[in-house]
Amino acid sequence: MKGGVYLDAEAPNLVRHCYALVCAQRGKRERFPESVVEVVPSPEDALARQDPAQGVHAAELVGPSRSSEGFRLYYLVRWLS
After folding, report:
1. For the segment 2-29, what is each residue's pLDDT rounded down to a tens digit?
2. Contact 56, 22 (CB under 8 A)
3. How far apart (Å, rounded) are the C-alpha atoms in residues 65 and 69?
4. Distance of alpha carbon 34 from its chain centroid, rounded?
5. Alpha-carbon gap, residue 40 to 19, rounded angstroms
């Protein structure tokens, strides 16, 4: 379990690990709506495209998962930089 999200080995396409660019301030926040997440193919791609001065950070995430309010959320595993 990560951040209240259970990973199901029987359904790996529902919630998965991914690398992404997150357009948000880094801080204590551990989940992000899909509107601020851009999934990329590799950690190298995320690191190459990040722009911390503009608030775009490379991260490893788990998601998307549907919240109780109906939003699709990604949960932070770790910041890549």
Report:
1. 455 555 555 556 678 999 999 998 888 8
2. yes
3. 11
4. 8
5. 6
pLDDT band at 1 (very low <50, low <70, confident <90, very high): very low
Q: For 29-78, write each residue's pLDDT tens digit.
A: 899 999 999 999 999 999 999 999 999 999 999 999 888 888 899 999 99
C-alpha distances out from residue 39 to 10, 19, 21, 35, 70, Å: 23, 6, 6, 11, 20
DSSP 19-45: EEEEES--SS--EEEGGGEEEES-HHH
Question: Torsions phi, psi of 35, nearest 5?
Answer: -70, -15
